[in-house]
Amino acid sequence: MSDLADLTLAEASRGLRAREFTSVELLEAVHRRAAMTEANLHAYLTLDRDGAARAAVAADSAFKAGTDLGPLQGVPVALKDNMVTRGLETTCSSKILSGYEPPYDGTAVSRLRDGGAVIMGKTNLDEFAMGSSTENSAYGPTRNPWDPDRVPGGSSGGSAAAVAAGSAMVAYGSDTGGSIRQPAAMCGIVGLKPTYGLVSRYGLIAFASSLDQIGPLTRRVEDAVAALEVVGGHDPADSTSYPGPVPDYRSGLESGVSGLRVGVVTELNGEGIEPAVQEAVDRTIARLEAAGATIVPVSLPSLEYALSAYYLIAPAECSANLARFDGVRYGLRRLGENVEEMMSNTRAEGFGPEVTRRILLGTYALSAGYYDAFYGQAQRVRTLIIRDFQAAYEQADVLVSPTSPTTAFPVGERTADPLSMYLSDVCTIPSNMSGDPAISVPVGLDGAGLPIGFQVMAPALGEPVMVRVAAEVERLAGFDARARFASSEVQ
Amino acid sequence: MMAYEPVIGIETHVELTTASKMFCGCPVDFGAPPNTNVCPVCLGLPGALPVVNGTAVEYAMTIGLALNCDIAAHSVFARKNYFYPDMPKNYQISQFDEPLCVDGHLDIDTGDGPVPVGITRVHMEEDTGKSTHIGEGGRIHAATHSLIDFNRAGVPLMEIVSEPDIRSAEQARAFVTELREVVLRLGVSDAKLEEGSMRFDGNISLRPEGTEAFGTKVEIKNMNSIRSLQRALNHEIERQTALLEAGEAVVQETRHWNEETGTTSGMRSKEESFDYRYFPEPDLVPVAVDDEWRERVTARLPELPAQAYGRYLDMGLDGPVAAVISRDVEYGSVFEAAVAAGGTPQMVANWLTGEVTALLRRTESTLAESAINGTALAELSSMVADGTLSASAAKDVLAGVAAGEGTPDEVAASRDLIQVSDSAALEPIVDEVLAANAEAVEKLRAGDGKVVGFLIGQVMRATGGKADPGAVSEIIRSRAG
C-alpha cells in the first residue's frame, strides 16, 4: 500500500507507534486525497486545516514523549456536522445555523481531542440528519465514491463518503433510523450504531432524542471497535447515558461464530429487498452456517408497524428539538414587524422542505385531540417492538438482515417521493426503536459494482457478540474495498 | 335576588433558592449582571442536555410533604411547547400528568374554624429568562426592540395547584399567607412577592348558593401581592355577579389584573388558548423516589406553622397570640429564643404581638431589621415583672433596644429609666406633690378615691416616669389616711 490515506485505522495506529510515519505525514496524505476527491464528492462542509495541523503536531510530540493517548492518537478523523465543535462552524447542513460557531465541545468531541485524534473537519449530512441520501443539505449533496451519479446514503453521507474515499481514516456520524449503517452500506464501509446511551449525546444537535446515537464509520470492524472505545462510556452531562462500565468489545473479535445462534429476521429479509442484495445476504448467512453458527428463522411481527411508528415519534421529538432555532440567540435571523414574525420569517427561510415537513408532522402528532391516536399509539408500538426483540433474543444471540433494501440509488431519484426515501431505512429503524446496537458490514458488490451491507443486530449492550459476528462476516466475505479508494477511481 | 357562591382555586409559583439551576450548574443569583449566570444548557444552545438538580427535587418533596401530599415513587418531566423569546428552547421542561407530589391539603382559618384546602399537585419546572421591552409602553408588541437576561432561565420553579376549595377572597388571602409561611419555614424559597419569587394565578367561578355544579371559570393573572390577589378576586366576584344578575354568561378566559385601575381585562379566551403539546421529556429519565429518600427528607422537615401553633397553645399562650407567632418565622424564632433565655412564654408573646408590633409599624421596619432579639425580650419582660421598669419606661427601653443602643439593662441605665420603688426615695417627692395639690388631698381624705390616679400621675411626671406607681399609691394612701 503506497498511499497512507488508504490504511485502515489499525494499520495507521501500528505505523504511527512504530514510527514508520508521523501524524503530520498521515494528515498530509489524507489532505492530498481530499484535494483530489472533494470537488466530485463534497463529503466535507468545513475542512479545518489549521486545527488539524496543530493536532497532528501535538500528536507527534506526544508520541515522541512516549505518551499513548489511545488508538486514535494522530489519526485524521472527520465529524458529522451535527456534532458541536468549539469555535468550528457547526451547521447541521442547515441555513438556519449558517456561520454558527459553538462555544463548547460535545462530550464525544472532547473525548476525541483528549485521545489525540486529529479532527479534519465537518462532514455533510441531510439537514438536521433528516434524510437517507445526503441530498437534503442546504450546502449541496454529497456523492457516492463508488459512482458519483449515485447518493452515498444518509444522513451521515459525508462521513461515509470520506472514509470510503480516503479523505478521512475514521469518521463519526449519528444514527436515528439508520443514518450510520445505511450510508456505510452504500459506501462499502463499516458503520456501527451502539446501544442507546453508550455514547453521550451531550453536544449532538438533537433530531429525535430518544433515538439518536453517535457511532463510528470505519473501514474494518476492529477499527469501529477502537473508535467506539474512545468516545463511549458514562457521561454525567447526559441523563440517558448508560451508567455502567463499557463492555470489553475486543476480546471476541477473533473467536468466530461456532456455537452462536444467528437469527434471520423474516420481516426484514426477502420481500421488498433487491434480489442482488438478498443474494449477498443469503450467501453470507450460508457462510456463517458453514463456519459453525446455527441459523434460526426469527419472526418479529410488530416490525410491520415500525416505520409508521418511527415517522410519528421522530418528527414529534424533532418538532420540539428544533423549536429553539428562532433567530433570537444564534444563527440566521430574518426581521419582521414583531417578534412572532421574526421567528416565523427566520424559520421559514432557515429550514429546508424535509425539515419543515417533519416539524409539521410532529406538531400535528402531538396536538390536543390527536396525541393519543398518533404519538401515544406509536409509543405503544415501540413497546411491542421492544418485546418482540426480547423474545427474538431468547432464540438467537444475534439477528441479521440486509442493512438497506437496495444499493446506492441515483442522485435525484427519490427526492420527489418522501415515502420511497423513508423505505430506505426499513431494515435499520427497528434497532433505533428498541435502543439496541447494530452494525453494517460490507459483504460484496451488486451487478453494477455497488457495495452491499449486511446488518448484525444484538440485544442492548450486546456489542461484544455483535462485533464478534461482524468480524467473522468480514473475514468470510473477504471484501476489501481499498482498490476503490485509489485516487484514480474516484475522480 | 339570587345569592352566588364564589369557587376559587389558586396556582402558586415559587422560585427555589437552591445553589444551582434546575437542569445545569449555573448559580441561582438574582443580583448578578445580565447574562452572566448562563451556560449552553440554560441558554438552550444546540446539543446541550438537561440534568436534574437533586437538591431541587428534595426541596419540592419538602413542600409536598409539608402540604400533606403523597410523593410519587416515579414522576416524569415533560416538554411544554410554546414560543416565547425569553424561553431558550421554546419549550419549558415541566411536569404534566405524573407530577412529584399529589393529593395534599393545607388548613386555613379565617376565624370560623379550620378549613382544609386541597392541594391537587406540586410539580417541578424551570423558569424563563426576563425580557425588557424598549419603546412604547414597555409591552412586547409595541417595542422597537427587547433585551433578554437569561440569568433567571432555568431557575427551579415549583407550581403548587390548589383544589377549588376556596369560597371567598378573604379565604384566598388566608391560603396564600399560610402557604407563604410554610414555604419560608421550610427555607426553600425567599418567597418575595414584590420580586416575583412567589407568584399567584387565581381561578374563579360563581354558582348559585346551595348548588354543586361549577360555573364558568376565569383565570386571573398578574397579581403581585397578597393584597392585589384579594382585590382582584373581589373585583371579579362583583363583575361576574353583575353579569349573572343581568342574565349574561361569563366567558371562559384569562384576565389580566390592573393594579392601578383595580379592574381585570380579558387577555385571551379559551378558543385562543395554547395547545402546549405536552409529551414526556426524552432527554431525562423519570425521577425515582424510594422510601429511604422520602423518609430522610421527612425527618429533616422543620416544624410547620400549624404544628407550632399547637405547641404554643400547650405552652399556655392565648389562641390569637399563638396564631400570630406561629405564622411568622421571625416572630417564632425570637419567641423561641426569648423563652429559651428564661422569658415567661405568655409575657414574651404579649410583648411581641403588642408593643414590638406597634413599634415596628411606627418605625416601618421588620423584626429582622431591628436589633430586638430573644434575649433582650426575655430580659425586658422580666424587668417589668420584677418592677425594675415601669410599663411606660419599658416601651422607651424597647425603642432603644430596637435602635441598637444595647441590652435592655444598658438602655435603661443610659436613658435613666430604672423604676424607683424605694419608699425612702419616693416619700419626699410624694410629699412635695401632696403639698402642691391641697385640694385633691382634701377630696381624698373626704373619701374620693378617684383623685389617687391624678396624684400618682403628678408623681410620675415629677420623676420623669421612673416612679413605681404601686409604691407611690401606697405612700399617698398612707399619707392621706
Question: How would you characterize this protein structure?
Answer:
The complex is a heterodimer of chains A (491) and B (481). Chain A has 491 residues and is an alpha/beta fold. Chain A has a single domain, classed as Amidase signature (AS) enzymes (Alpha-Beta Complex). Chain A is 40% helix and 12% strand. Chain A has helices at residues 9-17, 23-41, 49-64, 107-114, 157-165, 181-187, 221-231, 275-290, 306-321, 339-350, 353-365, 372-395, 418-422, 429-434, 463-477, 482-485, 487-490; strands spanning 44-47, 76-80, 118-123, 170-174, 190-193, 214-218, 261-265, 294-298, 398-402, 438-445, 451-457. Chain A has an 11-stranded mixed sheet, with helices on both faces. Chain A starts with 8 loop residues before the first helix and ends with a helix. The model of chain A is unreliable at 485-491 (pLDDT under 50). Chain B folds into 3 domains: 4-296, no CATH class; 303-414, no CATH class; 423-480, Arc Repressor Mutant, subunit A, CATH 1.10.10.410. Helices cover 39% and strands 21% of the residues of chain B. Chain B is built from 15 helices and 16 strands. Chain B has helices at residues 54-66, 169-186, 226-245, 291-299, 305-314, 319-327, 329-340, 345-363, 374-385, 391-402, 408-414, 423-436, 438-445, 451-462, 469-480, and strands spanning 4-15, 70-71, 74-75, 77-81, 91-95, 101-109, 114-126, 130-135, 143-149, 156-162, 198-208, 218-223, 253-258, 263-269, 279-280, 287-288. The longest helix of chain B has 20 residues, at 226-245. The A-B interface holds A 83-84, 90, 92, 97, 100, 102-104, 106, 201-206, 208-210, 236-240, 316-317, 319-320, 323-326, 328-330, 338-340, 343, 363, 366-368, 371, 375 and B 40, 43-52, 79, 81, 83, 85, 88-91, 140-141, 146, 148, 275, 277-279, 282-285.
